[in-house]
Design a protein that fits this description.
Length: about 375
């Protein structure tokens, strides 16, 4: 299949597979075991912790390996707020966050935690004046994404973290779509974040592993009680998955500009081809600084996205609806940008990454354009 669904996941890098192999093929040891085998697994885990933390420019001691960014986001929000007491315990987050953040926020609201979900601008960027106004003295935590998984918007995380801190609140960043793509250093674009969620499979690592980086000294309540293998996260660690994550982070350390230039070139190719049919791009300017150029959310007015996807079984595509058939609920992100439900049902999310061949974008988007033309001729 031609893969134009790079926001859903990315293929495993061969280097990540090679790093995982020994732990799948014989080194089966539990990193918690005290014997030599356990110590060997533990050493691999700690080496990966250093590699992932290095890409973040963070203290490795703050990194908690989890099953992915969903768990990391749940741990950040619930771990900080579910048992919080006193006048400062409000969560402020945004309507375009990933469903795992919004559902965790709803869970907290059911527990009685005050929650504020702020709207966003029509271009998918935050309204910083409204954000500042929401930062009252009862706000304990702000949660905001670095790069949006549906519309690619890149948010000014360090500026927002500084605003949260000025109001006495902590700042959590879901960097699942940003890590390995944009600068994610804690002394750079993610500066000031107190917690950061990461996912390996969005950056050519394996599925089923991620991490929450927690500023040392910040106390969280665990989601799972147990042996405390990852301090606030219990359960036997997965050396193979963690080693694969570490290898993916090592690969992402160098060459960021070259990877971004390739992804940006693919965006130009896609936009050139799409110019042949009526369409509208959702979110920030696709070639501007406010958007990750590997994401293109595009509406073909009057053309059902589910039918486009059904007509192109050889291309991996995502629709603007909650399920890939296009029949599901329109995406909450598009709704938050003010995209009418009918347009959301005519929306596809195209995505490519640093290893996507240009020929895949040419062929895939070329076939997409032909299909849109054919379906809109039939509709007319
Ligand atoms: C994929 C994704 C998640 C969930 O990550 P998993 O590791 O798959 O649980 C959370 N947030 C964003 C922005 C994502 O893109």
């Amino acid at each position: 299949m031609i893969d134009l669904d790079a926001q859903a996941t990315t293929p495993l890098a061969p280097e990540a597979l090679a790093a995982m192999r020994p732990f799948l093929e014989g080194r089966h040891w539990n990193p918690h075991s005290a014997h030599r085998g356990g110590r060997m697994a533990r050493a691999a885990l700690e080496a990966a912790r250093v590699e992932v933390a290095a890409l973040l420019g963070a203290d490795p001691a703050g990194l908690v390996f989890t099953s992915g960014a969903t768990e990391a986001n749940n741990l950040a929000l619930k771990g900080l707020l579910a048992e919080a007491e006193g006048p400062r315990r409000r969560l402020v987050t945004f309507a375009t966050e990933h469903s795992c953040v919004l559902e965790a926020a709803r869970h907290l609201a059911r527990l009685g935690v005050p929650v504020c979900i702020l709207p966003v601008r029509a271009d998918g960027m935050p309204d910083l004046a409204a954000f500042r106004a929401a930062l009252g003295p009862d706000v304990a935590l702000v949660s905001a994404m670095a790069v949006n998984n549906e519309v690619g918007s890149i948010w000014p995380v360090s500026e927002m973290a500084a605003m949260a801190h000025a109001a006495g609140a902590l700042f959590h960043c879901d960097a699942a779509q940003a890590f390995g793509k944009i600068d994610c250093r804690l002394d750079g674009a993610l500066g000031g974040a107190d917690m950061v969620s990461l996912s390996a499979h969005k950056m050519h690592g394996p599925k089923g592993v991620g991490a929450l980086w927690v500023r040392p000294g910040l106390a969280l309540a665990p989601l799972l009680d147990g042996g405390g293998q990852e301090r606030v996260r219990s359960g036997t660690q997965a050396p193979a998955l963690v080693a694969g994550f570490g290898a993916a982070a090592r690969l992402a350390m160098g060459g960021r500009e070259a990877r971004e230039a390739h992804v940006r070139a693919l965006m130009r190719v896609a936009l050139d081809l799409l110019a042949a049919v009526p369409h509208r791009v959702n979110g920030p300017d696709p070639l501007g600084p406010g958007r990750w150029p590997g994401n293109l959310s595009v509406t073909f007015p009057g053309v059902d996205a589910g039918r486009i996807i059904a007509a192109l079984p050889g291309i991996a595509l995502a629709s603007g609806a909650a399920c890939s058939s296009g029949a599901g609920r329109p995406s909450h992100v598009l709704a938050a940008l003010g995209v009418p439900a009918a347009d959301a049902r005519a929306t596809l999310r195209l995505g490519w990454h640093a290893c996507t061949p240009e020929a895949d974008v040419r062929t895939g988007v070329g076939q997409l354009v032909a299909t849109v033309r054919r379906l809109s001729a039939r509709a007319a």
